[in-house]
């Protein structure tokens, strides 16, 4: 039973141990994303439906398409990774806005601590009526500081859980400046500006390749739409492929080549700095 549960957990199925571990942590671990059972089933159902349609269009064989659609067991894990990256991207975007607010406050003469907590009020103005992950983290850090903990310990804990390089870099700069006694305000101001500009560059790259990503998805759909059109409009034209083992071999080779091209295309579109 435990072996089955461990296998399902590897595929993205929510386990009680993972939920207990998540609840026992001081804060959210943004490097992990735990699917609910409804999300798991929805992701598997969507993946199985897409794969069944694709394999049926290739082979025109319901049992074979049903068996091959079991490959969708990997879909919940893919969705979990996608949801984790999206959450980290949102966290990075809000962190960039916090850095701009922090830079403005430091330029106005505030201390680093006051400027950091003042950025929380600015985020509340930017996102009225909503709670973001970064707001919760800043509230948590402020609460820890009010209970006698240092600001750098709260930032380090958040940076370790975030899994975002820019947050870790900012925390490293802040911690080193605190320990070495440098010009903390000026160094933090410059570092915040540079990190914010780097995040902006990454966002501009995402915007530039968003169109290409959309075009790549359209290109992946075209072969299946073309097959469906041929099956509906000219079934006699496609009949020789399903009359012998050679035809099925050619279909399998074509499907493998298509899958390889799709993999290469997705790798090319996955640009990360």
List the helices and strands and how they pair.
Layout: H1 2-10, H2 16-24, H3 37-59, H4 62-68, H5 75-107, H6 112-126, H7 133-146, H8 151-162, H9 165-180, H10 184-233, H11 235-238, H12 245-269
Helix pairs in contact: 3-4, 5-6, 5-10, 6-7, 7-8, 8-9, 9-10, 10-12
Explain how this protein is built.
The protein has 273 residues and is mainly alpha-helical. It has a domain at 88-202: Receptor-associated Protein, CATH 1.20.81. Helix content is 79%, strand content 0%. It has twelve helices and no strands. The longest helix has 50 residues, at 184-233. The protein starts with a helix and ends with a helix. Residues 20-25 have low confidence and may be disordered.
CATH topology of the domain at 88-202: Receptor-associated Protein
Topology, number of strands: 0
Number of helices: 12
Structural class: mainly alpha
Mean of all residue-level pLDDT scores: 83
- Portion in strands: under 5%
Radius of gyration: 25 Å
User: What is the class of the domain at 88-202 in the CATH system?
Assistant: Mainly Alpha
The end-to-end distance, rounded to whole angstroms, is 42 Å
CATH structural architecture of the domain at 88-202: Up-down Bundle
Q: Major sheet: size, sense and barrel closure?
A: none
Residue ranges: pLDDT <50 for 5 or more in a row? 20-25
- Give, in order, the helices and strands: HHHHHHHHHHHH
Percent of residues in helical segments? over 70%
**Global morphology:** elongated
């Amino acid at each position: 039973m435990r072996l089955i549960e461990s296998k399902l957990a590897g595929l993205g199925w929510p386990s009680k141990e993972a939920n207990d571990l998540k609840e026992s942590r001081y804060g959210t671990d943004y490097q992990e994303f735990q699917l609910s059972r409804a999300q798991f089933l929805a992701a598997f159902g969507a993946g199985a439906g897409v794969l069944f349609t694709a394999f049926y269009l290739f082979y025109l064989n319901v049992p074979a398409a049903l068996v091959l659609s079991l490959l969708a067991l990997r879909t919940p894990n893919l969705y979990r990774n996608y949801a984790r990256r999206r959450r980290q991207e949102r966290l990075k975007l809000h962190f960039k806005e916090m850095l701009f607010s922090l830079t403005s406050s430091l330029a106005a003469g505030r201390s680093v601590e006051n400027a950091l907590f003042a950025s929380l009020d600015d985020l509340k103005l930017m996102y009225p009526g909503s709670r973001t992950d970064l707001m919760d983290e800043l509230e948590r850090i402020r609460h820890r500081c009010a209970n006698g903990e240092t600001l750098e310990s709260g930032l380090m804990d958040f940076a370790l859980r975030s899994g975002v390089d820019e947050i870790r870099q900012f925390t490293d700069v802040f911690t080193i400046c605190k320990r070495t006694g440098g010009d903390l305000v000026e160094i933090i101001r410059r570092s915040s500006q540079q990190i914010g500009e780097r995040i902006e560059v990454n966002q501009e790259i995402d915007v530039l390749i968003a169109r290409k990503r959309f075009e790549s998805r359209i290109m992946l759909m075209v072969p299946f739409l073309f097959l469906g059109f041929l099956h509906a409009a000219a079934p006699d034209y496609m009949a020789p492929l399903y009359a012998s083992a050679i035809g099925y071999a050619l279909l399998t080779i074509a499907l493998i080549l298509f899958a390889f091209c799709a993999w290469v295309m997705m790798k090319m579109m996955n640009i990360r700095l």
